[in-house]
Design goal:
alpha/beta; Rossmann fold; four-stranded antiparallel β-sheet; 10 strands
Length: 232
């Protein structure tokens, strides 16, 4: 299903961050949000998840209006969210964190097995507390927990930040698998190389306003938009 942001405005208390932002994430594509620090990229993901109330506009998944739902209902409609910093239940084991992911949409052993097959290192660490994992393993676990939803839409906020190349490659492969499965993916990523390798389309955000949305091939041929909106 297509996720659509229809003129959303949002912020933190009296501070408005997003201004009438409209975007569309389609099944089987990676839409990357690009912009300078503070442009509103993470705020956009939080608004989709219902973690920030909208001042105006709507968030729609197909015909369902996600923005009219309480935040705890949004994942039940198939929106997986991997926030910056992972936000794991650090005192729980790997197995328990995965179980939390499965409970959100009532998934069971078959989904669990599929996820552990994608991340075999987690299978070796099921009884370990999440806080004892390396940074890369924690990112694996955060990703695995989101995939336990069997999501229609996957939101990733800086998934490769601070990871070694082998872990970055694994995250990239996971994104490819989900795209091939027809999942709509919204990616916030500062590594331009990763964006050019992963994205199908790029949406530029500037000071909370939506600017150009272009096919990634446009950026591969001409870096002028990157210079304009990201300063690269």
């Amino acid at each position: 299903m297509t996720l659509r942001l229809d003129g959303i405005s949002a912020g933190y208390g009296p501070v408005q961050v997003l201004f009438d932002l409209s975007l569309e994430a389609r099944p089987g594509e990676v839409l990357c949000l690009l912009g300078r620090n503070g442009a509103g990229k993470t705020t956009t993901l939080k608004a989709i998840m219902g973690l920030l109330p909208l001042m105006s506009g709507r968030v729609l998944l197909g015909a369902a209006e996600l923005s009219a739902m309480p935040a705890h209902e949004v994942p039940k409609h198939g929106i997986g969210y991997i926030p910056q910093g992972r936000r794991l239940f650090t005192e729980l084991t790997v197995a328990e964190n995965i179980e939390v992911g499965l409970l959100a949409r009532g998934r069971g052993a078959e989904t669990r097995e599929k996820v552990l097959t994608m991340f075999p290192r987690l299978r070796e660490r099921l009884s370990q507390r999440a806080e004892t994992l390396s940074g890369g393993e924690q990112q694996m676990l955060a990703t695995a927990r989101a995939l336990c939803l069997e999501p229609e839409v996957l939101l990733l906020d800086e998934p490769t930040e601070g990871l070694q190349p082998s872990m970055i490659s694994l995250i990239r492969d996971t994104v490819d698998v989900m795209r091939d499965a027809g999942v709509a993916i919204i990616l916030v990523e500062q590594r331009i190389e990763a964006v050019l390798n992963l994205a199908d389309r790029v949406a530029f955000i500037e000071n909370g306003h939506g600017r150009e949305v272009v096919d990634v091939e446009v950026l591969r041929r001409d870096k002028a938009l990157l210079q304009k909106y990201v300063g690269i």
